[in-house]
Amino acid sequence: MLPENVQKVLKKQRYKIVGSHSAAKLCMWTRRSIRTGGKEHCYKEQFYKDIGIKSHRCMQCTPAVSWCSLGCQFCWRATELTLGQTIPKEDEPEKLVEGLLKAQRNLLAGLGGVSHDEKYLEEAQTPTNVALSLSGDPMCYSKMSELLDVLHKRKMKTFVVTNGTFTKAMENLETLPTQLYVSMSSFSKEMMDTVNRPMIKEAWKKYLETLDLFSTLKTRRAVRITLIKNLNMKSPEKYSELLVKASPNFVEVKSFMSVGFSRNRLPYSAMPTHEEIKEFSQKICDNTDYKIADEKKSSRVVLLKKK
Predict the structure, then answer these.
(1) What is the CATH number of the domain that holds 228?
(2) Which of 299, 200, 221 is nearest to 256 (CA)?
(3) CA distance 304 to 252
(4) Cα separation, 295 vs 299, whole angstroms
(5) Which of 12, 13, 30, 246 is the S-S candidate for 211 at Cβ 3.0 to 4.6 Å?
């Protein structure tokens, strides 16, 4: 079970704890989509219309709520409460999915008492997309292949976000997610030491190995670049070199957002404006075969695709 001090922090942030190492939490955009009947939705629904992502039917969760290999400055979780990289006693995937779905429905129950779209709230009870990116790194869960298999058999699309230091775990995936993300917020070991604050040895070496592996994986692949003003928002040509190495189908260039525990580490002024994000994105395009394909100002994010 999670230590009491960790549970206390998570519950205060409105996480619904599931089993011994997992959690779900309603995304802000899920709530907005239900309340507005889809008029307001997240950038994933806008960017990935081709696979039918719907904000109100998305379940944001994690199988490793307090396990990770990095202590990123921009992370919204309490990184000082990280419990390591190996989950001591893992729940079975089928049981985990049942628990997450139950948690999601409990969280949705709170929306019935406020203004909402009845059809959207009803549809939200049956998620069609699962974002395994809430907190911690999902690749710490050794049964990720089985978990993805269970979700896919239930006709749910899966988006998995990993920090790129779990190369072997990614290499061993027998079932791949619908879309696999690798985070990118540093272009050198020195920057990683400052921005991501690794908790494991040879993190940068593992990260580069992951980028080599990434280009060979037979699924939709995306790199999410998180930019922080006056810290890692420089040298776009160096990010470009890493993107050429990884060769993702999509690149999301996004501003750090001042939320959660990140506010204790970074000032509000460290958030780039959308215009600054777009300008930086164009510089990346100038050095690669990507082009700007879409943008969402409210989320300060720009989507790049190959020309």
Answers:
(1) 3.20.20.70
(2) 299
(3) 6
(4) 9
(5) 246
Taking only the tens place, the pLDDT of each residue in 4-14 is 998 999 998 89
Residue type, 143: K
- Rounded Cα distance between 100 and 88, Å, is 20
Which burial class, exposed, middle or buried, applies to 112 when counting CB atoms under 10 A from its CB (0-12, 13-18, 19+)? exposed
What tokens appear for 172 in the block? 């061993």
Write phi, then psi, for 197 (nearest 5 degrees).
45, 70
**How many structural domains is the chain composed of?**
1
Burial of 137 (0-12, 13-18, 19+ CB in 10 A): buried
Task: Compute the distance between CA of residue 236 and CA of residue 243 in angstroms, rounded to an integer.
Answer: 11
Task: Record the pTM.
Answer: 0.94
What is the Cβ-side half-sphere exposure of residue 141, based on CA atoms within 13 angstroms?
Answer: 30
What is the 8-class DSSP label of residue 128?
S
User: What long-range pairs does 51-56 form, CB within 8 A, spacing at least 24?
Assistant: 51/157, 51/178, 51/179, 51/220, 52/128, 52/157, 53/129, 53/157, 54/123, 54/128, 54/129, 55/27, 55/29, 55/30, 56/30, 56/120, 56/121, 56/123, 56/124
Q: What's the CA gap between 28 and 298, in Å, rounded?
A: 13
- 207 is in which domain, residue-wise? 4-306
Neighbours of 215 (CB within 10 A): 12
Contact 160, 133 (CB under 8 A): yes
> DSSP alpha helices (H): ranges in the chain?
4-12, 28-36, 43-47, 93-109, 118-124, 144-153, 167-171, 189-195, 203-214, 236-246, 274-286
Task: Record the tokens describing residue 285, joined without a space.
Answer: 């395009």
Q: pLDDT tens digit string along 79-133?
A: 889 999 999 999 999 999 999 999 999 999 988 777 888 999 999 999 999 999 8
